[in-house]
Amino acid sequence: MADIQKLTDEILKEAAQTAEQILAEAQTQVDQKVEEATKTSLAKKELLLKRADQESKLLAERIVSGANLKLRDDMLTAKGKIIDRVLDKVQDGIKSMPLEEEFNYIAKNLKGRTFKDDEVVIVKPSLADKVKTLLGHAKVKEEEGISGFAIDRKGVIENHSLETTLDYLREDLEAEASKILFPN
Question: Measured between alpha carbons, how far is 151 from 90 in angstroms, rounded to an integer?
């Protein structure tokens, strides 16, 4: 029986060594898997942090860009309102323009122009005599409420009132006013 005991001890010893070897290999594999999983997790973490950083920078740039656009739009709106007020004051000034200045406007635009028999120059009554003297042979008609002048050609009116001229020149005047009011 001693041989059986010896054989059993040897088998148990061998089995214990094999078990230790299997456990050691299993532990090594576990350690490798844990290390690989840790490296993969750290790499994913770095990638996520990098993406989050890029996205936050992009979002910040968008917010700043949007704020700059809004500021620019607000400034343009404010400048437009100021220019509108200036041109409104010019239009108010036209309504209260002295007769001599209004006559100078008419004279500048009509002097040297020839008129056909079917054309009639329309002006306010207070300027009619001066315009008749200026134009000589042209027909002049008096009409209340007109500023500047108009020319009637067989029922077709060519309007040269000061308000119409201002409206016609408004875009150019806005550009000039902008240069004067906002030099930068």
Answer: 24
- The CA radius of gyration of the chain, in Å to the nearest whole number, is 48
Coil, strand or helix at 146: coil
Q: Cite the beta strand spans of the chain per DSSP E.
A: 119-123, 139-142, 148-153, 156-161
Where do the domains of the chain lie?
1-96, 98-181
Measured in degrees and rounded to the nearest 5, phi and psi for residue 128 equal -60, -45
**Residue 56 contacts residue 131 (beta carbons within 8 Å):** no
Whose tokens are 């009509």? That residue is 110
By three-state DSSP, how is residue 108 classified? Answer: helix
Its pTM surpasses 0.70: no
Quick check: 75 and 178 in contact, CB under 8 A? no
Query: CA 62, CA 57: separation in Å to the nearest integer?
Result: 9
Quote the CA–CA distance of 107 and 95 in Å, as a whole number.
18
How is residue 97 written in tokens?
Answer: 């323009």
**pLDDT tens-digit readout, 23-67:** 888 899 988 998 998 999 898 999 999 999 999 999 999 999 999
